[in-house]
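Predict the assembly for these two chains.
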Amino acid sequence: MNALLELRAVRAAHEGITVLHGVDLSVGPGQVVALLGPNGAGKTTTLHVAAGLHPPRSGQLLLGGRDMTGVDPRDLARAGVCLIPEGRGVFPNLSVRDNLLMMTFTGRTRQEIEEVAYARFPVLGKRPGQAAGTLSGGEQQMLALARGLATDPAVLLLDELSMGLAPLVVSRLYEQVAEIARQGVAVLVVEQFAAAVLGIADHAAVLVRGRIERQGRPDGGLRDELSALYLGSSA
Amino acid sequence: MEQFLTFGIVGLSTAAIYAVIGSGLVLTYVTTGVFNFAHGAAGMLAAFCYWQFTVGWGWPVPAALALVLLVLAPSFGLAVERVLMRPVQRLGEAERLVMTVALLSGAIAAARWIWNPDLPRPLSVFLADKQPFHLGPATLTWHQAITMTVAVAVAAGLWFLLNRTRTGAEMRATVDDRALVRLTGADPVRASRVAWILGTQLAAIGGILIAPTVALDAAQLSLLIVSAYTAAVFGRLRSLPLTFAGAVVVGCMESYLAGYLPQNPYLPGLRLAAPALLLFLALLLFRHPGLRHRDRRLVQVPAPSLRGTAVFAASTVMAGVVLATVLDEADLVSYGPVFSLGIVALSYVPLAGYAGQISLCQLSMAGIGAVVWGHLGAHGELWALAAAIAVSGAAGALIAVPALRFSGVYLALGTAAVTVVLDRWVFTLPAFHLFGLRISFFDQGSVDMSGPDLFGLRLDSAADLTVLAAVCLGLASLAVAWLRRGGFGRRLIALRDSEAAYATLGGNLLVTKVAVFALSSGIAGLGGALYGMQQRAVTAEQFNLVAGLPIFLVAVIGGLGAVGDGLFAGTAYLGPNALTGVASWTQNIVTVLPALAGMGLGHSPEGIVARLRRQWEPLGRDPAALPALLGALALGWVLRLTGAVDGWTFLLGSLAAGFALRAWAAARQAPTAEADVPVEWWGVRRPWRPEDGEVLTRATAGR
């Protein structure tokens, strides 16, 4: 399989403390990979390495086969990497419309982006002038996800999409994620709330203390292991 | 009617200038998150440069304008962004605020250095040779017309930039979340640069337009900005149209007050103070939702041991005694205030350091203390000192009540407004009677002060007063340390960390804020009274906003959380004056120093006192080095008193002995310090050693 996003033997550290000890991960076009694991395993750091926010100590970041290690996040974004960060990936003091305007960096005009975003999330179209920080949590996450829809990314990285949201909202958001993947986008999802994402994932990787402990199809065996991991009993 | 119109036109053209400056403030605030106190100072510098080019060197006006607006202002903005703002970008709002205050203070000092303030510098208005023209019943000069046109053009241009372009959206987005800006393919550094360049250019336009109509004076021009602040606050620091409306209100109010205010001795100050008064009212009336921020990092507040602080207080007193015996009368008048101004600086510690309330009016509170002492304690009555503390404490409590509505930058603005109202109006009032009580301030001149009568012992020589101030500083430091360790100190820090959490835990915000304002104002009042005694006579100018800024800056550099900050700030503020004694040409450098040091804050956010403490702690613990140092100091002191050595030899010798013994003590204690690294930090805080694996295996094998 031809991977769109590939991490090879990535090691990364926070202020001298190594958090990733050689992570290998690849996501192909149209594939949804779930990256699971307990708190502090290094999931968010993995995503930040993939988006260029955190330069790795060693190892490689490949995008469509090209080495992009150490490239500025700005240029990675222009090359098609779209990270929706943890918390709300929106600018709280900017209006919905201005948030959408910030998504024009790939060449689409604001009108096109507004059309796409409002068609998928009609609630946003009802309040284009409202400051994003005053939207509800789910609406903010929709606005954040609109960047994944409207900028035609090659790779979509999602960090804790479900944080602080009602289960119904979460499942609706993940429907959109699946829809994005169907268009050929490589999707890498970090999620604590494993049940939400395993429904749409083609592949799952379990990250524990900076190492991929297990990966494979999200079947029953993997689920059992995961619950053992979260609940702390030794499998 | 014609007069009314004329004043209206004057008001509107002033309003246009305020609108230009105010919209520059709004622009920098919404695009960088920094409320730029130095915005007016940038305009002031631009006006001075413009004067230099056109009048000083006789260049043609267009060339001078182009050079100032297109070259100097952008470079200044870029330098500010690069040198001052980027290092504190990750720190809190307070640190960024301090940077701009340092810039304001530094710009005023630099302008006075370059352009001698005693020479008048007239600047002619634009197109002064053309006849005024008529517009309906009104008559406009060309300068007024140009000013208004520029304001409208600026307004339209800025509005379009911020609301209709991607660059504008990028600039505003940068304040919200710099990381996310990079994820959306934009460059946050570029956005900040554009913001600072544009902001400085707007300030420069405002400065050049307003300079011909007022005197070209560094402090006055920089503080003209108070009116522009008011306009920006009308716009809640975000809305350009409302900022323009605010500017019209302020400009017209000033103009009509100038025209119609009745002549009597109480009111001329009111006209000068009116913009500040309006600023305070506007702050009170409008709700100010802060920008929604994500990054906030709070500096730790150390809890000093009472024993350590007692030693520190004793050393402070010793330092006072040494100074009092070593220096002569004239030098004591200049250096004795190390301790009294140190007390004023110490008053920032509970208020800003513990409770997180940035107040810029502490020196005014000191002024109140000084005035009370001057009037009530003319014969040295000791109760008058208590009265001075009580009255300034009450004044502080009074400020705290409205201040309950402000936080962060708004509190700094509000207290700055209070200071301006006090020094432009209240302190200039002649004596008056209120409810049968005669109230007088500086008697429109200076107030004579005398020393206190300590149970029959009259302290009146400079030496006595220096020791008294040192004792008071020692006691106040001890009191603040005791406060920090007690329940009230914990409550203050809880308030700083999260007002909401503090209130939900059952804390009363009003009571706590009033208490801490009263307490620190009382401390400042004590400092002011002692300062006045040492100076023999005080004037209102010694306590104005511009005089207070360097003290605030030095206190911030020292570290607002540290009890030792009082002594540090006093020493660091007055100590460099010793240089001017040796070489008088250093005088200007010394006035710029606090500002320069303030700009260095980004590199040492926890404060210098904390760093000094770490460096000197080994010496304090060392059983051999400490007595050696004390012995050396005592020996030097005796030699100085007997006249064997001069003051400089004593000072330099003491410093040399201190540094040598510090290095020695640190070297003696170094090997023991390393063993203290906890097991889980092996390989992180110290290098991993080959034998460590063995040690760990043995330690865990027994389980």
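Chain B has a mean pLDDT of 84. DSSP finds 31 helices and eight strands in chain B.
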